[in-house]
Write a structure and sequence with these properties.
It is found in: Membrane. The protein has 107 residues and is an alpha+beta fold. It has 1 helix and 4 strands.
Length: 107
Amino acid sequence: RRRASLAWVSGEAELRLLLGLLAEAAVPAPALFWVGLKRNASACTHEEQPLRGFSWEGVGGGTGPQEVPAALGRWVREPLQSCLTVRCAGLHLAADVGDGPSWGWKE
């Protein structure tokens, strides 16, 4: 209705920029942001792919770039193995990073 678009994270530079903006905004963690990462019902989970079969939703029902660097394949928890239902994933920011990663995808 507002002609908005969802974000794509197609590279490490974009991810660093997004994480920096969220840090500047002092977003409380843990937090989960949907950035347009979706797996359609006809798509299966693919463990060998960084996005695990998910794809970026694009403008007008299209899709964003599907080839992403392996470094973007960080998942908080592996997505469910499925080929039957639509699933969404978001950018999860961790509350206590310690020595672990501060972010990951979460179904």
